[in-house]
Amino acid sequence: MKIVINKPKNWPILKNNKKIHVISPAFGVSEEETTKIKEFLADWQLEGIFFQAQKENDLKFLANSDYDRLQELKNALNSDQSDIIFCSSGGYGSARILPELLQLPKPKKNKLLLGFSDITSLHLAFNNCWNISSLHCPMLKQLATGKIDQKSIDFLHNILTKEESELSYDIRPFNKLAENLKNKQLPKLLGGNLSLIQTSIGTNWQINKNGPYSMLIEEIDEESYRIDRMLNHLKNADIFDDCKAIFIGDISGIDNEKYLKQILESFIDKLNIPIFRIENIGHEKTNLAIPLEVEIFLQ
Length: 299
Prior knowledge:
Blueprint: E1 2-6, E2 18-23, H1 31-43, E3 46-50, H2 66-78, E4 84-87, H3 98-101, E5 112-115, H4 120-130, E6 134-136, H5 140-144, H6 150-161, E7 166-170, E8 172-173, H7 176-179, E9 184-186, E10 189-193, H8 194-198, E11 213-220, H9 224-236, E12 243-252, H10 257-270, E13 275-277, E14 290-292, E15 296-298
Parallel strand pairs: 2-3, 2-4, 4-5, 5-6, 10-11, 11-12, 12-13
Antiparallel strand pairs: 1-7, 1-15, 6-14, 8-13, 9-15
Helix pairs in contact: 9-10
């Protein structure tokens, strides 16, 4: 089986010498990594626009202060220099700036946000609060330092540079409901990192804020009991009430694959929702870009 997604027509198409904004809303990147990012962008004939911090960063695990990371994102959203905002790194910190960001009016121009992992918080805000579609894809740091394979790099490049709009992804059913669901349109795809989906509960950017949706899940370096706890928290908080399909991507670095299998089987049995496995989306070397806030079609 496959899912087919039509790339939004209002997404920018990269051209030679086009500029893009490079932001670090969570962890930062070193000078050496920044150099590699610039070289990677140059190979794509792009120039990165980088933000200069203005205030001291008290929390060294963050790229810059909350003030500067918010200003960096606001500048990228409001700038006429670029239509693309590419996140350099994940880690932790994006959600810290969202309460202040969402007090602002919706941007006048839809910018294309690229990233994943901790950037899930930003995706949820863009998708749920502003109805702006975005692209779940590898970070610039990963792309520039050889952490992502050429297949994924080419797939992302084609999305950004080609006029073709149709994208397809292999999936396989995880339950009977999924086996019987074919040739069907499903509501918009939302989600990303499981931890960040869970921590959206009770916020303005909560994943199930606007009615029916399909959910994408991926995760890394969480012990099996934590995966179980997060999934059950979502269920107990009624997050799945409007969910019409779940797509489970890569769950990497798990402590025990046997436990993970048992957890997923138990979780799936509790839900009356079609659930699919979608490989090569997550924290592995192959990480295929996939649009969010876009309807999907099952084949």
